[in-house]
Design brief:
Shape: globular
CATH topology of the largest domain: Isopropylmalate Dehydrogenase
Helix content: 25-40%
CATH architecture of the largest domain: 3-Layer(aba) Sandwich
Length: 439
């Protein structure tokens, strides 16, 4: 079984192949400009290999030479960003079918600002003649507990299973309503969308507290505290179960290591709380280190989540790839977003065996600014750009993502979260103008 994944920028280095394994397999596919090397298909880490590639310029290489070059090339120096455009997965086992010259993609706008930023995506895609037909499902987490909302949720699951691909806003989960599981969590568990990837990197031209931030947060999506297993045993006493399994810990660890190898990443850090949760997080940590034995070219370490949070805001440059259970991923993704401009500029990707769902990397609903035309649509637009790379529509993805980053870097049209005064419509218009100017 082979998988794909959204990744990063700068030329990757693919290490020399290791011992062969007859059960391993890989589907070779390039989404932007091909990298200069690729790991051998018989390598152990290819059993669940994630084909990754991201924004930036690369050297074009013939596909047939990639395996040969991998063993011969000792290193590649990362190049500066020439153009930022998120790439994503290419995976034959669930790549959508094209009907009538268009792909059908599930669109779940979500709650809060979801409808507004989804409209920006639709406007931009239409202007660029992107060959996508949206199958929109207006499921909401606000009006839960009634038959209509449950039916819409089931419809969204069916749509994603049918189309294999979705673009999704964030669904609201009421804090005060007990007995109701988050639709966001339920969707990931139902479809086994097990890996969340959030890429945290400085945007050229947009000054933040720290420079040279370039890290990736990989989050196990389906278990941990988000299992939703809690109850009140007696009045005033609540028990909440945290589920950690060796199988899913190993799966996400392999995912993280494969991601690192495919992207010239040198270090993978396991984030945990094994000093207190010795069995649950202890299992996650020990499984991580056991899996790491199959990846001797990578530096590995682990860090307690408390310290990792502090280190992320004081010295984020020390991190490369970070892999962690569900709850810690939610916390550190938001910390990471704050380092580079906030939740409005960080896109994300969620990968499963059969379905890929793209959504903003930080799961903010934005109910407080709903309908005020103040939302930053960048994260949703860039998530859409990642989706286009998944489909192999690189030309469209390049134009759209470059226009977004050019508008942000130029500084004339920024939404309030980035220190500007532009409305959602004005930002979208500026992106369209950049795209038109580039033609």
């Amino acid at each position: 079984m082979s998988f794909g994944l959204a990744c990063r920028e700068d030329p990757p280095f693919f290490p020399a192949p290791r011992a062969a394994s007859q059960s391993s397999s890989i589907i070779l596919s390039f989404l932007f400009l091909p990298p200069p090397g690729f790991p051998h298909p018989a390598s152990p880490h290819c059993t669940v290999l994630y084909l990754v590639k991201m924004f930036g310029t690369r050297t074009v290489q013939p596909a047939k030479s990639l395996f040969r070059r991998a063993a011969a090339q000792p290193s590649i120096v990362r190049s500066p960003i020439a153009a930022r455009s998120f790439a994503t997965v290419q995976q034959d086992i669930f790549k959508p079918t094209k009907y009538g010259g268009k792909y059908t993609v599930t669109l779940i706008p979500g709650d809060g600002i979801g409808a507004e930023v989804a409209e920006s995506v639709k406007t931009i895609f239409k202007a660029d003649n992107v060959p996508i037909e949206w199958e929109q499902v207006d499921v909401s987490g606000v009006d839960t507990g009634n038959k209509h909302s449950e039916e819409l949720f089931k419809e969204s699951i069916a749509s994603l299973r049918r189309n294999k691909l979705g673009l999704k806003g964030i669904l609201f989960t009421p804090v005060e309503r007990s007995g109701h599981q988050s639709f966001n969590v339920a969707l990931r568990q139902e479809l086994d969308i097990f890996a969340s990837v959030v890429l945290i990197k400085n945007i050229p031209g947009y000054k933040t507290r720290h420079d040279n931030v370039d890290l990736c947060i990989i989050r196990e999506n389906t278990e941990g505290e988000y299992s939703g297993l809690e109850h009140q045993s007696v009045q005033g006493v609540v028990e909440s179960l945290k589920i950690i399994t060796r199988a899913k810990s190993e799966r996400i660890a392999k995912f993280a290591f494969s991601f690192a190898l495919a992207n010239n990443r040198k270090k993978v850090t396991c984030i945990h709380k094994a000093n207190i949760m010795k069995l649950a997080d202890g299992l996650f940590r020990s499984t991580f280190h056991k899996t790491a034995e199959n990846y001797p070219t990578l530096e590995v370490n682990d860090m307690i989540v408390d310290n990792a949070s502090m280190q992320a805001v004081s010295r984020p440059q020390q991190f490369d790839v970070m892999v962690m259970p569900n709850l810690y991923g939610g916390i550190l993704s938001n910390i990471g977003a704050a380092l580079v401009g906030g939740p409005g500029v960080v896109p994300g990707c969620n990968m499963g065996r059969d379905v890929a769902v793209f959504e903003p990397g930080c799961r903010h609903v934005g109910l407080d600014i709903k309908g005020k035309d103040q939302a930053n649509p960048s994260a949703m637009i860039l998530s859409g750009s990642m989706l286009l790379r998944h489909l192999g529509l690189d030309d469209h993805a390049n134009r759209i993502s470059k226009a977004v980053y050019d508008v942000i870097g130029e500084g004339k049209t920024r939404t309030r979260d980035m220190g500007g005064q532009a409305t959602t419509h004005e930002f979208t218009r500026a992106v369209l103008d950049k795209m038109e100017a580039a033609l």
